[in-house]
Amino acid sequence: MDKVFPSIDEAVADIPDGASIAIGGFFTAGTPVDLIQALSRHSARNLTIICQSMGPGNEDVTQLVVQGQVKKAICNYPFYRSATRGAESPFEQAVRAGSIEVEVYPMGTFIEKLRAGGAGLAGFYTPTGIGTVVERGKEKKTFDGREYLLELAIKPDYAFVHAWRGDSVGNLMYRKTARNYNPEMAAAGVITIAAVEEFVEPGELEPDKVHTPGIYVQRLVKVQRRNYIPSID
Amino acid sequence: MTTKLTKFEGLSRELIALRIANELEDGSYVNLGIGIPTLVSNWIEGRDIVLQAEIGMLYTGPLASREQVDQDLINASCQPVTELPGACFFSDCESFAMIRGGYMDAAVLGALQVSETGDLAGWNNPGRGFPDHIGNIGGSMDLAVGAKKVIIAMEHITNKGEYKIVRKCAYPVTAVGVVKLIVTDLAVIEVTDTGLLLREVAPGLTAEEVQSVTEPKLVISPNLREIQL
Hints:
The complex is a heterodimer of chains A (233) and B (229).
Chain A: H1 8-12, E1 20-23, H2 33-40, E2 47-50, H3 61-66, E3 70-75, H4 83-87, H5 90-97, E4 101-104, H6 107-118, E5 123-126, E6 140-143, E7 146-152, E8 158-167, E9 172-173, H7 182-188, E10 191-200, E11 219-222
Parallel strand pairs in A: 1-2, 1-8, 2-3, 3-4, 8-10, 10-11
Antiparallel strand pairs in A: 5-7, 6-7, 8-9
Helix pairs in contact in A: 6-7
Chain B: H1 13-23, E1 28-32, H2 36-39, E2 49-53, E3 57-63, E4 81-89, H3 92-100, E5 106-109, E6 113-115, E7 120-121, H4 140-146, E8 149-153, E9 165-166, E10 179-183, E11 187-192, E12 195-201, H5 207-212, E13 218-226
Parallel strand pairs in B: 1-2, 1-5, 5-8, 6-9, 8-10, 12-13
Antiparallel strand pairs in B: 2-3, 3-4, 6-7, 10-11, 11-12
């Protein structure tokens, strides 16, 4: 069951207009930059992008915005912290102009929606967001005297994840805090494409140390490890 | 329309952080938010306090020096950090299971406004011009709801001289009735069932002066004292 694609462009080639794509990575850590860049070389439009932020620490999504490929963004921290920096951001400008729709969730809710999507659940009740604008239009229910909010699962058509090590059958390991959203997004994607820094033969990853079982991963591509200084400013 | 409040001299941001570090108990798991809360980490060396980074890490160490920078090892503010003995990594999803699950003894957060009943508004500044449901929520709502004790670290008034401790939050709230303690450059205030209890004032300040820059009526503690550092 060899899932390795010969090139990154072939791995994203069938993504259709209107697809939803979950993209792993917390600011700069564990972000599948090469896959985002491949998507910007591809013609798909009207995309729904599901990722932490649409700019800070994730500059490559800006190209998708500039090229008019994004219809909607689902995030937990979409904007630059600095209002000045934000005003210059094509994403923020598109949101203000109404050309991109944005949905924002609390971070824990955001990733739990994806976990539910990958785990066959319709949704879950969370105490987070009660009494805030997040509860608008959502069912509330009281359990043991405490109010909870119903949040629904997200099941994206595609997921892009970044792994440190992987084998050709799709087993993945992440490194340190580059793990972040990647495991739940890998499980949630109908088609999950993993960018892997280091490939090993099946059997070489210690089975006890696999973070994402290969069953969740449909396509694999080899990428070069990048070296950079993490920053969101 | 509103009159500008008097700007009193008080503690520096570093000393607000020190006062909060003194409030944290040994043996506790703590999450520090962005801004003044991050500075608390400078004052807990040698203490038995474990810092969680919500990106997915426990036993988060000090900020990395230039030589130590590892691109795969950052905190939730995207700053390169180090790991301490005992460190472990997990997914962001598990990190928030931990937070909502009630395992964080304390969360130290910044705020735009805190109300007299402990409502916290910290995620959305309407001045940014977005609809009120659009902004950077990040991990703030989960932390505010899930941590056993929410401590606010902030300046007492805004740069423009407006109240930050208010009767009712005008800004979109992060969570309702969650704040237990407010530490500012001017005072230490506990949120109680009977109102805001002024426990400590910055050196040289009187309770009346603190009240003059605080919108709700303060209850003055019979044991009112200067902030001890």
